[in-house]
């Protein structure tokens, strides 16, 4: 930093768990204060746009509720009674708890835990370096995209796709089960470009009338979890009407007569019955998709957050292979760029030290892990350090998560910006810097560049970065690794250099580094990242994860959902809220006033049948829990389907627990993940 008091615009990058990973321009009013934040024009994916919640980041970084000093619990667990404790004493307490847990049960009793509060190369995964050096339990990060990732990999071989900027060259953009108006604003800017330049059509498939359906040319609203039926019928129509690309199928896929016969059995009439989408709409979409060469399939994550989610993603992703749209500019498909970054993570994450014998605990099943029910054969978890995660709110089966975090024999330290419901259950709470106060690099999972995030202002209060906390604990625990003695910039610079991606100085000058390896489309198309280069219509599910039993060997509507039953006749989805980012921004006044309190969208016919007026208080529940919220009559979903947008704070519900109390923690096939939009519930007037 230049240290001057003069206002100036500083270029950095957004750290949030959002596929846009925007390059930002931040107005620095002084070494300790920011003004406005804008999307930067320096990178053509960000293209000068960022979302409203980050544009108002001054509200978050300068929020009066920011944690500014380390705290220790002084009342009973969960009482929320804390008193200040100095940094040294707080770090000593954590190191002591880790040593005690290790002495009693071995190092696997310590479970360092991180999630998506930041997607920084150091901020998110730097904790793994301490984990691997010390032999602590490993973490399987499943809460976000695992079912989608597995479903995409099943066909394509890797979580890679066409460059998402390709949507600007498409004639049809088929946005399947994603809501970019709320969750990826930049993508909408690229779609707008295609509409303007090429007269392109945006098609959105969702389970409720999302803001993106409102913005679409064609919107299809189906019964949650039934997307594969729609995709299969679309493929059957394409085959029937001779619109499949036979040469592409023969050259670049494992297509055979058995696959063809199987797909052809799925008629639009059958799919209409299953999905609730009128048959004529299915036919029209099938003809539009198969009849357009430049058709970009942009898969979201929402439709995979169900027990059949991976199989559904696979079925949907078959569409682009069937029509051979990969051979055309503006064609092909994209979900997330998770593979192919080519980063040497040994220094930052200690990834060369991974001991495969050390157990792996499932992030999403934190409740079951802490209850001793999902310990993968090892000792109980006795000590945790949680960074970038608000597990008490975001993880499924919230009652179990709380019970676990409140265990008297468990030590929990939470490193946070705010006193979240998770932090409130901790023994030690540490204040964390925001991205504006530390240096990091971010993976643009919704595009294909690394974005560069130098710090902009001094830390707020005594806040320290994740890297600083990891290094300070390492020193106390006697953990040895070169990364522990380096500054953030030193680790990032060395990481870029050993990855052949230049230097930190060059990266900050550019603002972004093209990195992930996309699948080429058009004339450059050279096959899929499968060992034989061919897309697989016949996935090898057991190769992808341990829960593959019963998964279909061909693209299928796999009837594996939390089916509505007599006691729980409604199906509930819990899609993201526009002004929150998971639970981040639930603390800022601007976002809170935009979202209002928790609301239940329900079809007017269901409301009439149950005598529920608009604005009435209602209860929803199942065997896992029950919640009270406000009814919102809404004709943008099918009867029998309910939607609650956003993860509103637990304190906004009279029960003192939030929406994830209703969500099951059973792992989604084949490799784990959470069925956040696959919930059977009952509904009553309150
Ligand atoms: N504003 C905002 N932005 C965000 C987030 C946020 O919370 N708020 N979260 C961030 C994170 S962590 C992620 S992973 C991404 C997620 O980004 P998305 O992929 O856009 O979000 P999803 O939760 O996956 O849900 C997307 C849509 O899927 C729909 N859906 C639910 N069930 C079904 C179904 O069975 N079929 C179909 N076709 N659609 C269904 C939902 O109604 C929702 O509109 O967004 C990121 N960006
Ligand atoms: N019902 C329902 N539940 C869901 C979802 C859904 O669609 N519906 N979506 C799921 C998805 S996709 C995801 S990814 C998860 C996300 O769940 P989480 O990854 O837990 O995300 P957040 O709720 O945003 O909480 C992140 C926390 O990290 C903190 N944080 C941010 N930056 C830093 C930092 O640099 N250092 C430290 N120490 N802390 C930091 C923030 O203050 C915030 O409290 O939620 C899941 N839960
Ligand atoms: S939250 Fe997403 S859209 Fe908003 S600034 Fe960050 S990366 Fe961009
Ligand atoms: Mo996510």
TrEMBL record:
CDD domains: MopB_3. Residues 7-65 form the 4Fe-4S Mo/W bis-MGD-type domain. Keywords: Iron, Iron-sulfur, Metal-binding, Molybdenum, Oxidoreductase. Coiled coil: none annotated. Transmembrane segments: none annotated. InterPro entries: Asp_de-COase-like_dom_sf (IPR009010), MoPterin_dinucl-bd_dom (IPR006657), Mopterin_OxRdtase (IPR006656), Mopterin_OxRdtase_4Fe-4S_dom (IPR006963), Mopterin_OxRdtase_prok_CS (IPR006655), Prok_Mopterin_Oxidored (IPR050612). It comes from the Bacteria. Its cofactor is Mo-bis(molybdopterin guanine dinucleotide). Gene3D superfamilies: 2.40.40.20, 3.40.50.740, ADC-like domains (2.20.25.90), Dimethylsulfoxide Reductase, domain 2 (3.40.228.10), Formate dehydrogenase/DMSO reductase (3.30.2070.10). SMART domains: Molybdop_Fe4S4 (SM00926). PANTHER family: OXIDOREDUCTASE YYAE-RELATED (PTHR43742:SF6), TRIMETHYLAMINE-N-OXIDE REDUCTASE (PTHR43742). Belongs to the prokaryotic molybdopterin-containing oxidoreductase family. This is Molybdopterin-dependent oxidoreductase.
